Amino acid sequence: MEEIDGRSGFCKSNSIFYSKRKPLPLPQNYSLDVTTFISSGAHQGKLAFIDAATGRHFTFPQLWRAVDVVATSLSDLGVRKGHVVLLLSPNSIYFPVVCLAVMSLGAIITTTNPLNTTREIAKQISDSKPSLAFTIRPLLPKITAASNLPIVLMEEDSNIPITEPKIVTTLGKMMKTEPRASQVRDRVFQDDTATLLYSSGTTGPSKGVVSSHRNLMAMVQIVLGRFNIDKEETFICTVPMFHIYGLVAFATGLLASGSTIVVLSKFDMDDMLSAIQKYRATYLPLVPPILVAMMNGADAIKAKYDLSSLHSVLSGGAPLSKEVIEGFVDKFPNVTILQGYGLTESTGVGASTDTLEESRRYGTAGLLSPATEAKVVNPETGEALPPNRTGELWLRGPTIMKGYFSNEEATTSTLDSEGWLRTGDICYIDGDGYIFIVDRLKELIKYKGYQVPPAELEALLLTHPAISDAAVIPFPDKEVGQYPMAYVVRKSGSYASEKEIMDFVAAQVAPYKRIRRVTFISSIPKNPSGKILRKDLIKLATSKL
């Protein structure tokens, strides 16, 4: 094989970009589940999880005992390898206990968003066919209305009366049982399915992503290598655990490092800042809108809260601009910004910036994760491209999903026979191996045959002094096909007009990229990882047609 270019990681003979990160040690034992793998990690016997609101907590020994007894109870309820278990719950210290117990049996965990409607939950249940559900009392009606599933109520109190006939037991009762030395457990292999997470469906209906124990173990190793944690660290968990970002970081990955994880049941800026101060947190994972809010409110925040323990924020979901990175560093000089890029289909990893210096390649998603390979492919011709050429990002490596659940058509259009995942993201990789995501393939606006990337126009709009947030969507038009339309959130006290904004963009882009319609809106709808919900905006824009 030809020499790999040391700077970009690109190999001319096969047009593959190779990771410049240190190689990944993967467990060689084929008969291994991710729970056993994580629980074998070193820890200092200190706290694993703390509930920020109540102070309830698990030490590491308590956590692994809880996982063991819940797994035993599940086994007694008839849950076996290959069975699907549904988890509908906000973040809590019990969320990872359920996930780890289910996966230790070789059963499959499927999570769902507490904000989903009964109809959406019913659809996921009919698709994934779970044999049991875990939920909390306030969310109970969403499951009982959607199905006849037996339910475990996530109540700590083991003595509460059970009135709903579908409730078979409570988590409190499960955790009161004694662990048994001898219990029948199926052998679990690295290639067995561990999780069934539903992708956000930004480009269509959401699909069940099937990930194996090996996918999760590779992800854990990448997370551990990235943070290189050798002393006590405390992470704040506000990102949703039902989403790949939360599941990767909190329910599994960081646990293996022996770190302490402080759990907030939902995002609230004051609660988050209070928890950083109270628990002397060192790492704060978040999504870009929260980072921007912290930057904008920095003076008031620093006057009220002691954030001196914080040394790193981890941002995912969308790349950060130069203005945001430098603005944040200016306000919080002792905090390093680290960024990450990943998909549900790649178990949440793919690329990252691991130092402030790397994050200062403004707009980058970072360098390829360890053991991960990439191709940049021309979507029209299928040709694999060299550095600095724009095309669709394809990824291959140990974290790439097995496929979409019972959806062969979607699987074959996304995963090719050689294991390459077509991400649907348009990018280029520069001469130093940094990935720059330009846009979503399916979100490109087609104006008279020209392709217009919404992200480029959004980045431009955000440089306007009167605009605090913006989203660009395709608006259907008989003559040109589609034209760019902007939804704009004005800064308070600003009265920028539609014409002023259209002129501002027109002065800086080619004529076919001009914004031809502007609507002012109070906030841009986004999913939990910070991605703009363009589908919702397109529906809003076209509902009046």
How would you summarize what this structure contains?
By secondary structure, the protein is α/β, with parallel strands linked by helices. The protein contains 17 helices and 28 strands.
Topology:
Elements: E1 10-11, E2 16-18, H1 34-39, E3 47-51, E4 57-59, H2 60-76, E5 84-88, H3 95-104, E6 108-112, H4 118-128, E7 132-135, H5 140-144, E8 151-153, E9 167-170, H6 171-176, E10 193-198, E11 208-212, H7 213-227, E12 234-237, H8 244-252, E13 260-263, H9 269-279, E14 283-286, H10 288-296, H11 298-304, E15 312-316, H12 322-331, E16 336-342, E17 350-353, H13 356-359, E18 366-368, E19 373-377, E20 391-396, E21 403-404, H14 408-414, E22 421-429, E23 434-440, E24 445-447, E25 450-452, H15 454-461, E26 467-477, E27 481-490, H16 498-506, E28 517-520, H17 534-542
Parallel strand pairs: 3-13, 5-6, 5-7, 7-8, 8-9, 12-13, 14-15, 15-16, 27-28
Antiparallel strand pairs: 1-2, 2-19, 3-4, 10-11, 11-21, 16-17, 17-18, 18-23, 19-20, 20-22, 22-23, 24-25, 26-27
Overall description:
It is a single chain. This protein is α/β, with parallel strands linked by helices. Among the domains are: 152 residues, 3-Layer(aba) Sandwich (Rossmann fold), CATH 3.40.50; 99 residues, ANL, C-terminal domain (GMP Synthetase, Chain A, domain 3), CATH 3.30.300.30. The chain has 17 helices and 28 strands. Strands 1-2-19-20-22-23-18-17-16-15-14 form an eleven-stranded mixed β-sheet, sandwiched between helices. Strand 27, helix 16 and strand 28 form a beta-alpha-beta unit. The protein is globular. 45% of the residues are buried. The mean pLDDT is 91.
